[in-house]
């Protein structure tokens, strides 16, 4: 007979084997690229003699090629907030490009070329000689971001690999942070603040994939709810940073093996290589440069900062009242209570269960009398039901679609839904 403790252990092991907890070795594109030894024939050369300057867009473009006849295009530009933008695209191949993440489409500013030979190109924002980008021909070519003659970020193209159209859309690249002692960022992991070394045999890269993890491991590089591909390289003297404008699944290996040059290797499932480089030079400057791109958070209302009681799930309004009353009785500082899907009528959002939540207005007044707030969860899955106005209104118009144009349907809480 299985004892209670053993049964719990078996269940936990089974739980952590599901898809959201996969390791790099269990994900095809990650396993392939992490163990991929790029050869010299795959190293890219920057054809500096063929540089193209577009004075209308303030974008400098030059071709990249290797001995396997893979052709890429490198675009470099400077933004007004002490930031550089690096885009690498494949010639004659279209990839998905994000439109929703940036607060606005960044405007490239004028630049000057201060050095150009057959082997090296140096450019800087017009009027700002302290900041520059240096591109060396290679192979492999290199791109350095420098501030006051010191290299801060090095784009290492020896790890620049793109899958062919027949193989898929994955790609990888490596970025070194010259002069930094620690790396931070890749938020939404249950791990320490300083990014850990991950290239050891028993380690896994940081995984960036939005998952709904009911349980999670601590001190882990596994995914949680969010994925933020931003990294800060920091030392006592300066800070620099990068942001990969890409929402695909990513795995990031961190290493500190080279003194004062920690590096991050990105392995990305698809999309475009659209990389923002932050000059800093202070940590505050880098954060400002990052949020200039993605937008600043509004200051939260005071009540949102307190304790929120939330669980799955309160079946009736009487259950809610009882919890709140007990909180008051024991003088527990709670500001809000959340309701999961059971408050709805048949799991249809924007409705109330007529039996179990028959008086939602009265419930809110009761909570308000004790200075408590009521929050109802509304997820993006909409129940397929011809008597449900929200479903009928979105049908064929607003839901995610299959390639053939029909509405995508999935299952959530054992009901067929659109999203």
Automatic annotation (TrEMBL):
One of its GO terms (molecular function) is alpha-glucosidase activity. InterPro entries: Gal_mutarotase_sf_dom, GH, Glyco_hydro_31_N_dom, Glyco_hydro_31_TIM. Gene3D superfamilies: Glycosidases, glycosyl hydrolase (family 31). It is found in: Endoplasmic reticulum. Residues 1-18 form the signal peptide. SUPFAM superfamilies: (Trans)glycosidases, Galactose mutarotase-like. GO terms for biological process: carbohydrate metabolic process; N-glycan processing. GO terms for cellular component: endoplasmic reticulum. Keywords: Endoplasmic reticulum, Glycoprotein, Glycosidase, Hydrolase, Signal. Residues 74-253 form the Glycoside hydrolase family 31 N-terminal domain. Pathway: Glycan metabolism; N-glycan metabolism. Transmembrane segments: none annotated. Residues 298-411 form the Glycoside hydrolase family 31 TIM barrel domain. Belongs to the glycosyl hydrolase 31 family. This is Glucosidase II subunit alpha. It comes from Acanthoscelides obtectus (Bean weevil). The lineage of its organism: Eukaryota, Metazoa, Ecdysozoa, Arthropoda, Hexapoda.
């Amino acid at each position: 007979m299985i004892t209670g403790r053993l049964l719990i252990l078996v269940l936990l092991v089974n739980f952590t084997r599901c898809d959201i907890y996969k390791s790099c070795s269990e994900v095809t594109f990650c396993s392939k690229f992490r163990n991929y030894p790029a050869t010299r024939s795959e190293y890219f050369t920057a054809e500096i003699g063929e540089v193209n300057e577009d004075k209308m867009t303030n974008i400098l473009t030059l071709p990249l090629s290797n001995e396997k006849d893979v052709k890429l295009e490198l675009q470099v530009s400077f933004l007004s907030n002490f930031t550089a933008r690096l885009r690498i695209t494949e010639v004659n191949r279209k990839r998905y490009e994000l439109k929703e993440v940036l607060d606005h489409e960044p405007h490239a500013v004028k630049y000057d070329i201060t050095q150009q030979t057959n082997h090296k190109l140096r450019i800087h924002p017009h009027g700002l000689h302290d900041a520059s980008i240096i591109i060396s021909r290679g192979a492999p070519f290199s791109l350095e971001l420098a501030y006051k003659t010191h290299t801060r970020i090095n784009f290492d193209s020896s790890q620049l690999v793109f899958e062919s159209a027949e193989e898929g859309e994955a790609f990888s690249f490596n970025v070194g942070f010259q002069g930094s002692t620690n790396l931070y960022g890749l938020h939404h992991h249950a791990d320490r603040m300083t990014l850990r070394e991950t290239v050891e045999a028993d380690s896994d890269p940081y995984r960036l994939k939005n998952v709904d993890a009911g349980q999670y491991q601590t001190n882990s590089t596994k995914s949680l709810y969010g994925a933020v591909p931003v990294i800060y390289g920091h030392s006592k003297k300066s800070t620099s940073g990068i942001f990969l404008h890409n929402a695909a699944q990513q795995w990031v290996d961190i290493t500190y093996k080279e003194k004062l040059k920690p590096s991050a290797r990105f392995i990305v499932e698809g999309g475009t290589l659209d990389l923002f480089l932050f000059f800093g030079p202070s940590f505050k400057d880098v954060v400002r440069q990052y949020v200039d791109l993605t937008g600043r958070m509004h200051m939260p209302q005071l009540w949102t900062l307190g304790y929120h009681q939330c669980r799955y799930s309160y079946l009736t309004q009487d259950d809610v009242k009882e919890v709140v009353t007990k909180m008051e009785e024991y003088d527990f500082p709670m500001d809000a209570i959340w309701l999961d899907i059971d408050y709805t009528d048949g799991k249809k959002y924007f409705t109330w269960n007529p039996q179990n939540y028959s008086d939602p207005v009265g419930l809110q007044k009761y909570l308000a009398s004790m200075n408590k707030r009521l929050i109802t969860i509304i997820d993006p899955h909409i129940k397929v039901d011809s008597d449900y106005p929200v479903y009928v209104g979105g049908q064929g118009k607003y839901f995610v679609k299959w390639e053939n144009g029909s509405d995508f349907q999935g299952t959530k809480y054992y009901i067929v839904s659109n999203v």
